[in-house]
Amino acid sequence: MKWHLLLVDDDEVSIKISSFMIEETHFHPAPISFENGLRASEYLREVYKKEEKYVIFLDINMPVMNGWEFLDEIKNFTEPANVKILIVSSSVHEDDKTRAGASEFVIQYLSKPVSPDTLEELKHSASLGFLFNE
């Protein structure tokens, strides 16, 4: 099954660390990164197909379009059945975690940086394991 992995974060170091961890754990062969939600939503609008799967590692605090605005935008043209979002943030505010949990797209809230152990756990999780077991 073809699936897409998008990394949406304005912090270049976070993107590099995440990309390295994803490669090392064989989580995905070719993640695509975006420095803000607007660029990611424009890309997703162009490539989105209901029969494909999309996993998005999304930062909250970004310029141009932040993570919350991105979530609002993709509701207009995607479905939670095939778009799974993991909030990856340095924010420890309980309000952010609550807000993330209220989104039908968000499957988990992770702290930066994403560790190899977390990626391995995701491979076997109920929400993403199907991507790795085919």
Automatic annotation (TrEMBL):
The modification 4-aspartylphosphate is found at D59. It holds the Pfam family Response_reg. Residues 4-127 form the Response regulatory domain. InterPro entries: CheY-like_superfamily, Sig_transdc_resp-reg_receiver, TCS_response_regulator. It comes from the Bacteria. Keywords: Phosphoprotein. This is Response regulator. It comes from Marivirga lumbricoides. The lineage of its organism: Bacteria, Pseudomonadati, Bacteroidota, Cytophagia, Cytophagales.
